[in-house]
Amino acid sequence: MLTRLACYCLLFLPLLAFVPAGDRPAYRLFTAQGQVADYDQMLAQLAQADVVLFGEQHNDPMAHWLELQVAKDLAKAKGPGQLVLGMEMFERDVQPLVAQYAAGTLPDSAFERQSRPWPNYATDYRPLLQFAREEKIAIVGTNAPRRYAQQVARGSLAALDKLPAAEKAYFTPLPLKVDYDLPGYKKMTAMFGGDASAHGGGGARNIIQAQALKDATMATYIRRSLGPGQTLLHLNGSYHSDNHDGIVAYLRADSKKPLRIQTLSVVTQSQLQQVDKENVALADYLIVVPDDMTKTY
Predict the structure, then answer these.
(1) Largest CA distance in the chain
(2) Assigned fold of 24-140+218-290
(3) Position 22 pLDDT exceeds 80
(4) Closest CA to 63 of 245, 295, 281, 270
């Protein structure tokens, strides 16, 4: 009897060694409807998609670490040449520099001087770009240059009409249709005030048009950068893809070329046991992070 008991103890000892004394996870992964999700199963589904939109909180370290992990695992799952990295963080007019950096022909110092990287580039995005460069993964800056979004915010989309063709090439083709009833845009209306769908809707209308210019431009260059059999992993603020609108709405506007799209969204909560009601269905997968997680800025 003692011998048999000793054998059982030896059998389960390795398992007991991995039982945590307390559960303090840095994040938890859920499906859209709030069911606990498995990372490997999620990855298998992402690998089957044409486009994966990773909606981040720009200053969240868990988001940036997970973006790197997803990129590494998707590159392995897809095989050489089958993953493309798209980034809101780089604007279309610096794409030649992004391409040179990805090809290894532009040094880090020159790239950082000339490409207008975000202030948190060194800690949050540089490791991802370096990985892509090492693995020969194409990198695409997808965002409309900020100066054009600012012009729209001040004077509506009409402010872009008189620009020369060379400048119009940096954003989505005009005219741009804006659906003010998209959930994200309706939230912006409430945030900034005014009836954005009404004629002369004031500041809210122009701000939403500027947001739509960014969303549509990112969608345009995601489509243009995607080759047969490839998956394009796109990093953007979660507001650009939450509720499957924003970028997603513009990607789906071309019904002649439907895309398989998967979305992720990083949300913060005071507890990680379940998804808070307001976060349910924001994306296909929800990455829940403690609201007291340290920030990168």
Answers:
(1) 90
(2) Rossmann fold (3.40.50)
(3) no
(4) 295
